[in-house]
Amino acid sequence: MPPKRRSQRPGLLSSTRPPTVKSKHAALSAKATRTLIRSHHQLMKARAQAEAAGDEVRVSSINAQIEAAGGLESYQIASKLGQSGDRGGDSSKILVDWIKPQLNQWKPTFPKLRVLEVGALSTKNVCSRTPALEVTRIDLNSQEPGILKQDFMERPLPSTETERFNIISLSLVLNYVPDPVGRGDMLKRCVQFLTAECPISLPPTLFFVLPVACVDNSRYLTENRLLAILESLGFQLAQSRRTSKLIYQLWNQTGAFSPQSFKKEMVNPGHKRNNFAVVMRES
């Protein structure tokens, strides 16, 4: 008697939908995931440098390398894996936990707090499931319905308070920006999208997540320098948390917006350190 054939399980996703973390990529190890993310960041940085130098041949070559590695889609898959439960989890849970005392003031008769999630990867995270929050999600390459394909730096500036947000989330977004000036511009732009109009006692809030190496092992950025940069934009550090890989911070805008000049200058010498930097130009 011939052996019984195993029944084939149907695919988790139809061929018309983009892959998610439940695809074959879920087999990536944590080390492979970090390597893919790091490689993508390095290529993006190299491309920005080539573009600034006007080297079109180099830009084309780097674009080919990015595509060969799977492009932005593969980077996002790796990022989703990094946020899975066994690899650190959903960063928005930390945000919601930190503002829970204020959220307890909210009632269903109140307007919801508006949240702008830049670099959104999911419509089902803790932030999205919190009744008091109304989340607008944007990303350079939308992975599912409910996430608008948009570059935050090209999003039209708000003309009314209803187009502004009570909270902006930049979870592993600032480190994706390929050049230091662009990172500074992104932080300044956040201020333009925040509003002080809030139904509860929560000031305009910025939440972000960075690889801890960006502030612990950079020649050009330390946690104290990051503090000085954010304080010049009127922010005050409200919460901070570290893991072995990531740093989470919550900033409240309680002061005046008076950006100062922060150049790319050596603040933490060492030949084994990285070159991550945030450059702030005076407005």
UniProtKB/TrEMBL annotation:
Please state where this protein is localized: Nucleus, Nucleolus
Residue ranges, annotated region (Disordered):
1-28
DNA-binding found in the keyword field: no
Molecular-function annotations in GO: rRNA (adenine) methyltransferase activity
Q: Which UniProt keywords apply?
A: Methyltransferase, Nucleus, S-adenosyl-L-methionine, Transferase
GO cellular component terms? nucleolus
Q: Which family does it belong to?
A: Belongs to the BMT2 family.
Q: What does this protein do?
A: S-adenosyl-L-methionine-dependent methyltransferase that specifically methylates the N(1) position of an adenine present in helix 65 in 25S rRNA.
Q: In its UniProt entry, what is this protein called?
A: 25S rRNA adenine-N(1) methyltransferase
According to its UniProt entry, this protein's organism is Penicillium frequentans
